[in-house]
Structure formats: structure tokens, C-alpha cells
From TrEMBL:
This is glutathione transferase. It comes from Chironomus riparius. Gene3D superfamilies: 1.20.1050.10, Glutaredoxin (3.40.30.10). It comes from the Eukaryota. One of its GO terms (biological process) is glutathione metabolic process. Belongs to the GST superfamily. Theta family. InterPro entries: Glutathione-S-Trfase_C-like (IPR010987), Glutathione-S-Trfase_C_sf (IPR036282), Glutathione_S-Trfase (IPR040079), Glutathione_S-Trfase_N (IPR004045), Thioredoxin-like_sf (IPR036249). Residues 87-208 form the GST C-terminal domain. GO terms for molecular function: glutathione transferase activity. The lineage of its organism: Eukaryota, Metazoa, Ecdysozoa, Arthropoda, Hexapoda. The keyword Transferase applies. It holds the Pfam family GST_N_3.
Length: 216
């Protein structure tokens, strides 16, 4: 079913792993160790010039960017369309949420969080404001809706967003500030296929300084 180059702590990698679990397919996992700079090797750079994970190699196809990988896997292996609806309007909403996660929610979280963890920079109030605005948008998406794309069943958009929200929780963010997100997250923890990958990430995170202060 293909090789997945990944890092266990990476939220984007876990999106792909959970999507694969939802499809009932098994990927060959190849761990890329950033501390040994394996993502900087010429071999890996040939796979992905961005030198980031995840990367999927499936036959003669090499694909990076987690959400594009997920869409590829769903379109190739799904037995029905509940993860990625064929109806144009429903699919458009799923795509909207995927792009929101990639371009806004995860982006704002990463720009606030990672400089503090990796470079030991002080928290940036302006970046925190942008992250909180993104969380408030997600809270609105979930108003009167069970799932993030206004569907009655889980889609690949829920899987993508929940990986980001799990990363937020690991960082010390209190999801209880957002009742709709908190309700949806509880549902996803109980029903999302492959949730164990997040438990493994949580266990690994205990060996690192992953908590930050959100009270600025």
C-alpha cells in the first residue's frame, strides 16, 4: 500500500496514519529521525525538496503534503464516499475545511508554538491572537453541526483538524474554552480510526518540553 516516511510526533503525519486506518489499509512506516538529520540527506531531499514529512511513495508516485496524500489514498482505496463525498457541494465544504486547517488553523498554531519549543523564543502575543482567532472560527464551524464539514458522518476534514487540535491539547491549550470544539473532540477521540497514533505521540511528548503558556 506504499511507504510512508513519517515522524511519530508530527501532527500532519498522524493525519495520514488515521486516514489509512479509516480506509483499512496498512502503510509501511519509515521513521525519519530529525535529531539525526535524516530529513536533510540527499536521498530524502530527492523524495521531497521541502525536506518535510510526511512523504508517501506508492509505486512510481511520490507525494508530499499530508492532506493531498489523504485525498489520494481516499480516492484510490475508499469503498464508499463518506470520508470524501462525491457530491460537489459536500466535497467543496470538506475541501474548504482542509484548506482552513492547512492554511490557517495549523499554520497559526505552528507559528505561535514552534518558535517557543525549538528556538526557545518568548511567546508572541500577536501570534497568539491569530491562533485564537483561528480557534474561534473552528468553534463557529461546529455550531449546530456534528462534524467540521457540516456532514452527518466523519470526513477526512475531521481527521485533519483533529490532529491539529490534539497537538494543541498536548501543548497545554485548554479546549474547554470552546464548547463546540470540546464536544466534537470528545466524539473524535472515541470514534476516529487509528486514534492510537495520538496516544503514542502523547507518550513520546513526555520526554520533551512540549507545554507552553497561553496566558499572556
Amino acid at each position: 500500500m506504499g511507504d510512508l516516511y513519517f515522524m511519530p510526533l508530527s501532527a500532519p503525519c498522524r493525519i495520514v496514519q488515521m486516514t489509512a486506518a479509516a480506509l483499512g489499509i496498512k502503510l509501511n512506516l519509515i521513521n525519519v529521525d530529525p535529531y539525526r538529520k535524516e530529513h536533510l540527506t540527499p536521498k530524502f531531499q530527492k523524495l521531497n525538496p521541502h525536506r518535510t514529512v510526511p512523504v508517501l511513495v506508492d509505486g512510481d508516485l511520490t507525494l508530499f503534503e499530508s492532506r493531498s496524500i489523504c485525498i489520494y489514498l481516499v480516492e484510490k482505496y475508499a469503498k464508499d464516499d463518506h470520508l470524501y463525498p462525491k457530491d460537489p457541494q459536500k466535497r467543496a465544504t470538506v475541501n474548504c475545511r482542509l484548506y482552513f486547517d492547512a492554511g490557517t488553523l495549523f499554520k497559526q498554531f505552528a507559528e505561535f508554538y514552534y518558535p517557543q519549543i525549538l528556538q526557545k523564543y518568548p511567546a508572541d502575543k500577536d501570534k497568539l491572537k491569530l491562533f485564537l482567532e483561528a480557534m474561534n472560527i473552528l468553534e463557529i464551524f461546529l455550531t449546530d453541526h456534528k462534524y467540521v464539514a457540516n456532514t452527518e458522518t466523519m470526513t477526512v476534514a475531521d481527521i485533519a483538524v483533529v490532529a491539529t487540535i490534539h497537538a494543541c491539547e498536548l501543548s497545554g491549550y485548554k479546549l474547554s474554552k470552546h464548547p463546540n470544539i470540546h464536544r466534537w473532540y470528545g466524539l473524535m477521540k472515541k470514534t476516529c480510526p487509528g486514534w492510537s497514533v495520538n496516544l503514542k505521540a502523547a507518550a513520546l511528548s513526555k520526554h520533551f518540553s512540549t507545554k507552553i503558556c497561553y496566558d499572556l
